[in-house]
Design brief:
23% helix; 185 residues; globular; Glutaredoxin
């Protein structure tokens, strides 16, 4: 099946596209927006997923939450995003994992209900109104350093995301399969 995507605005090596979206930062009131500027001075792992209450998505979202401390130790924050509403996010977070919910998360989920941000990051499937599985690493200066996009049915690897983040933080040339502690080129 061919997927029609919008032109990519986000480019590795360039400033990451700005955003401001409703989020689950305050689960009670759902009135806290999240913006790229909130992460200035920190690394940001910003990822898109297709839809709440689906099958592959919760495996990724909970895996990242379960490893949050590993990202925090590297000075990185995590932000998840879909085109669902914050009310849907809240309902999913309030649903236990045993019932295909997320349970409590250690990072917020953002609502790109207008689809503007997914469009800017080049992951919006326009005719379906949902995002592909895009993951972006943005450095403390707001520069996009890494971008990967998966098909809807393939989950991403938390270990690989951590490995890439660690490689980016070396500032050096990292060969294929480089791991923390190994020499750079």
């Amino acid at each position: 099946m061919a997927v029609a995507l919008e032109p990519v605005i986000a480019q590795v090596g360039q400033k990451a596209p700005d955003f401001s979206m409703d989020s689950t930062k305050d689960m009670e009131k759902l009135d806290k927006k999240v913006s790229l500027s909130d992460y200035k001075g920190k690394w940001l792992v910003f990822f898109f997923y297709p839809l709440d209450f689906t099958f592959v998505c919760p495996t990724e979202i909970t895996a990242l939450s379960d490893r949050y401390e590993d990202f925090d130790a590297l000075g990185a924050e995590i932000l998840g995003c879909s085109t669902d509403s914050v009310h849907s996010h809240k309902a999913w977070i309030n649903t236990p994992r045993s019932q295909n919910g997320l349970g409590p998360l250690k990072y917020p989920l953002a609502s790109d209900i207008t689809k503007e941000v997914a469009r800017k990051y080049g992951v919006l499937i326009e005719d379906q109104g949902i995002a592909l599985r895009g993951l972006f690493i943005i450095d403390p200066d707001g520069v996009l350093r890494y971008s990967v996009v998966h098909d809807l049915n393939i989950g991403r690897s938390v270990d690989e995301t951590l490995r890439v983040l660690e490689a980016l933080q070396t500032g050096g040339l990292c060969p294929a399969n480089w791991k923390k502690g190994q020499k750079t080129l």
